[in-house]
Design goal:
This protein is mainly β and 549 residues long. Among the domains are: 103 residues, no CATH class; 153 residues, no CATH class. Helix content is 5%, strand content 46%. The chain contains 4 helices and 53 strands. A 14-stranded parallel beta sheet has the order 1-3-5-8-10-12-14-16-18-20-22-24-26-29, with no helix packed on it. A hairpin with a 3-residue loop joins strand 45 and strand 46. It is rod-shaped, with a radius of gyration of 39 Å.
Length: 549
């Protein structure tokens, strides 16, 4: 092996057929130098601080390796010539940093423990290895990088990056495959991924101690997998107008650490997003978001303002594992209506219903009477089911009975007693009985028939207690048009639904024998069957009691 040393003058070196080494410094590497390594494996060793521009030499060829060695301090900068396929080893023990600018050749760059380096790639291919953080400005060439964090500015090329300590990733039009171990601490700053029109495949894992990752997606296709992440993980959809619905987002298994924020205003279809795991959804103002059961099953919470509106066309929407907070509302676009199931009253207050027959089901709890009244007054929900019973939005304006012994709305109803139920419709209702008359089915097996009220906002039904009828808590269990029709404000109302009406009349044809039993089963008179959603109001004698004597 032959060793050559550059001088401060003009040098022309032609290596042997063996493995040769050429030593130089910033002071001895001159633009007029001509270097030809010849055959064999030849190394150019550059020592100390300074700038080494191999692209400016009169000739540079035949070399296989460049070593940049700086033991004294200061920056060491290296610029490669085009047409050079090289292995570059940087040993900057002074940690002064510097810059390495690559050409169009195939380069392996080993930075080792040299810190604070900036690498600028070109149209060539680069394999870059570092155990420290750095700044990487990539171009149209292909790059494979293994680093311990840093800033990565990508361009139109293809990049495969493995980072052991998070980083800042700015993507562009190219293709990026990122395998990133998150920073272990929040105090080191968040790991950020800013995407553009290119394609990104991001696998983010590790971290801990309240670190965080933020992915800003754009119109390019993104696959983001937070499996194994111990940090807080955030997907930010900057503008719903340019969002790519082919994106795939996978949450980590740690509850409460995965969120999706939707920016911009206008329409957004959450049904088309490919979600895995559980996410918290946050909306920006003035958004109209389509949801369904599949998308909601991945949401632990939905947060939005009063200008945000969620819509579903599903017949059922289970929100028992999804809380809705702040001002966003949820409406049904299903013509037949939607059954909404909620696990708390706060979420129930966000359900508006729609044009169909909508039911709000409380799972594992009961609304208060005031809460039910507020929901019926302010929404299009038709029926509320909770642990205390089934309710609807119309009021019983009055409940009267006939028979001896009935005073102040109290008494046992026996055979022959007549129960008259007057229902407040909220608007003028027109009843057509030419093909049949509406009826109410009661829970004692009997039927209350329509008797009048067409042309007013009050419809009247009567029921005569017959032999064998018995109920401690008389309730409406079904409503049938029975061939008739009811129109409210020129809207034909198809009323074929089942509910517990809570009229709470006590029916007992064996009153003398069982009066002690019935005396212990007093109930309140409340709403007796909602027959339309139009302007329902609660008034009248709700709250009167009937009891056995």
């Amino acid at each position: 092996m032959t060793t050559y040393t550059l001088t401060t003058g003009t040098d022309t070196i032609v290596g042997t057929s063996n493995d040769d080494t050429i030593n130089g410094t910033a002071a001895t590497l001159n633009s007029a130098d001509q270097i030809d390594g010849g055959a064999g494996y030849d190394t150019l060793a550059l020592f100390g601080a300074g700038s080494f521009d191999l692209s400016a030499l009169a000739q540079f060829l035949g070399m296989e390796e460049v070593d940049l060695v700086n033991l004294t301090g200061g920056q060491s900068n290296l610029t490669l010539a085009n047409g050079s396929d090289l292995t570059i080893n940087v040993d900057n023990e002074a940690f002064g940093g510097g810059a390495v600018t690559l050409g169009d050749g195939a380069v392996t760059l080993n930075l080792g423990a040299s810190a604070n380096y900036t690498v600028n790639t070109s149209i060539g291919t680069a394999a870059i290895n570092s155990t420290q953080a750095g700044t990487y400005n990539l171009s149209s060439g292909a790059a494979t990088i293994s680093s311990f964090g840093g800033t990565f500015n990508l361009s139109s090329g293809a990049a495969t990056i493995t980072s052991g300590n998070g980083g800042i990733f700015n993507l562009s039009t190219g293709t990026a495959t990122l395998d990133v171990t998150g920073k272990p601490s929040f105090f080191n700053g968040p790991d950020t991924f800013t995407l553009s029109t290119g394609t990104a495949d991001i696998h983010y894992h590790g971290g801990g101690n309240s670190g965080s990752a933020a992915v800003y997606v754009s119109s390019g296709k993104a696959t983001v997998d937070f499996t194994g992440s111990q940090n807080f993980n955030n997907i930010n959809i900057g503008d719903i107008a340019t969002f790519n619905y082919d994106d795939v987002f996978t949450a980590s298994a740690i509850s409460g650490r995965n969120s999706i924020g939707i920016g911009g205003s206008g329409a957004f279809d959450l049904r088309q997003i490919h979600l895995n795991g559980s996410w918290a959804l946050a909306l920006s103002p003035d958004q109209s978001v389509e949801i369904d059961q599949a998308s909601v099953s991945h949401l632990t919470s939905i947060s939005g303002g009063t200008s945000d509106h969620l819509h579903t066309a599903d017949a059922t929407l289970d929100l028992t594992h999804t809380t809705v907070v702040n001002g966003a509302d949820i409406a049904s676009t299903n013509a037949s209506g939607t059954t909404f199931t909620v696990a708390d009253a706060a979420t129930g207050f966000h359900v508006l219903g729609g044009a169909g027959d909508d039911t709000l089901v409380a799972s594992g709890f009961a609304f208060t009477a005031g809460q039910r009244a507020a929901i019926f007054a302010g929404t299009s929900v038709d029926v509320i089911q909770d642990s205390s019973g089934t309710y609807n939005g119309l009021s019983t304006l009055s409940v009267s009975t006939s028979g001896a012994g009935i005073t102040n709305g109290s008494g046992v109803l026996g055979v022959g007693h007549v129960v008259t139920i007057t229902v407040l419709m909220g608007r003028v209702a027109t009843v057509d009985t030419s093909n049949g008359s509406p009826t109410m089915t009661l829970n004692d097996g009997a039927t209350a028939g329509y008797v009048g009220g067409s042309g007013t906002d009050k419809l009247t039904f009567t029921y005569t207690v017959g032999p064998g009828d018995s109920s401690p808590d008389l309730a409406i269990t079904a409503f049938s048009l029975n061939g008739g029709t009811i129109k409210v404000s020129d809207v034909r109302v198809p009323l074929a639904k089942v509910w517990r009406g809570d009229c709470s009349l006590l029916i007992n044809v064996f009153a003398n024998r069982w009066r002690g039993v019935w005396r212990r089963q007093r109930r309140r008179i409340t709403r007796c069957g909602r027959t339309t959603r139009a302007g329902a109001r609660r008034s009248g004698t709700a709250g009167d009691r009937l009891r056995s004597l």
